[in-house]
Structure formats: C-alpha cells, structure tokens
User: What shape does this take?
Amino acid sequence: MIEDIDRDVFVRIQTDLLVVGDSIMTNRHHASNGNYEDDDPQNQIGGIIPAFPLSGWLRHGMERVVHEYDGTVCHPGEANANFMKEDIYERDLKENYHEKGACTDNPKEDDGCVVFDLFGGFGNQPGKVMRRPIKFNPVRSTVDYTRGQAEGHYRRLNRNVVSRNREDNREPLRNVEVDAVANLDGCWHLSFREVKPEFIGLLAEGIDFLDGHKTDFMHQLGGARNFGAGIVDCHLINPLYEECELKRVFDRGKGNTNKMAEKDDQWTEEYRPAIVETLEERIEEGP
Ligand SMILES: [Zn+2]
Assistant: This one.
C-alpha cells in the first residue's frame, strides 16, 4: 500500500495575505529594468517564499497531532542552548516535549520520535522530509504546480506610525516597509527521503489540524498575524494523483475526472485510515 505513494507530495496552500518579513526574495531587480515602482499595478514581480517559516508552521501542527495521541516529541530548541527563558523551556519539557535528541542514543541507527525522524536534529542527521521553498508568480499561466509553485502577487506595504499627540497633527514618527504576498494559491512540494506510512499519516493529520486552527494566532503562518496575515487554507493533495491530475486541481475550467473521484474514495476509505493507524502505533510505542 505505502509503495503506491510517491516520495513527492504536495500541499495546497491558499492565503489572502502572507508576510514573511524581509525573507521573501523577489526578482524585482531584474524584472524592473531600473524603473521599478513599488505601487505600480503592472508590476509582474515573482519571487520565492523560503521554506523556513513554512517548515516551522508545519512542524508545530505535527507536534500538536502527536500530543493529541499522548506522545512526546523533540523540543525544537537545542538542549544545550542558552535559553533566554529557561523556565519556559523547562515547562515545555514537562508538557509533551522531550529534550531534542533524547529519544535516540544513536541517530545513525535509531529513528527516535517521529518528529526527530522527519525533521532531523543535531549533528549531520538530516530529516527525512525535505521542505522546499515556494516559487510564486503573478502570471497564472506560467505557474508550474507540479514543481511546487504558486500564483501570488508581491506587494510592498507601507505602514506609518504617527504621533498621538494632538499638537503634532499626526506627524509620522516612522515608516515601516513590509514585503507581502497577496492572494497566494499553489503547491508546496515536500519530498520524502524515505517514505514511511506514519510520515504520510502525520502529514495528513498535521495539515488537517492546521486547516482547522487557521485563525489561531499560534497556527497562522509568518508575520503580521495580528493583522490577519497568514491565515492559511491548506490540504494535502491526494498523494495517489498523477501529475496531470495534480494540474487539474488548479484548472478552474476543468473539473475532477471520474478517475480522480475514484482515487479520492480510495484515499479516504482505505489508504488514509491504514496509514493513520500505523502512525498511532508508532506513537504508542513511545519515542
Ligand atoms: Zn524526539
């Protein structure tokens, strides 16, 4: 059964506004040819959303799923780090976390907890899921969803912080420029270095958890969350789909084929329950 699932899987990500601070990389410099204007609606600026904020967001969702099955996972911080808030770290360890890497004596031979297995840890131990950046572009026809790309519209937001003192007549005190992507819709490409059923199970459950908690401050993605940014609709695209079926998901002119509907039923009724059961067993075994 697990051998029917490809090592490359895709998560659909849709959000009205995403702010990842200054870490969005744009192609505006070469696209602008020297006359770039931030607010020109004709700008066709594309760029890259790095995997770091996406990875943290996903990991947090997955950690919560393991907690709900009464398991513990590696704390994301290094055990020997000089935490600014030692008491918070200690509290986390009492609540569903263990020290990073405490779940394995020899990471070369032993898999540790499922989060350690997926995300890797200290030393040269790579995680078994590779999280890629999302390349975005405002021109829908050029977006290749099968390569983990998305339609998205780069915007630079300006915020003026003004004086509250009446005499100052709302004089600006400072100006903040924020890079943002609006109306993002596309695929996040994840590759498993090794496909284990519990990995796919945790991914499916984690993505559902994040979708169900999208307006919780803790589970929004990126910055400016107080302002409604990073509320993400997400779902795992059926891993049984072929490439042409994946493309069809994003084609507004075409509906799902019968074959796709059949695969959806197979996924929900057979595959998913079986892999989630494997996940539960692995968590039950303990780290
Ligand atoms: Zn662990």
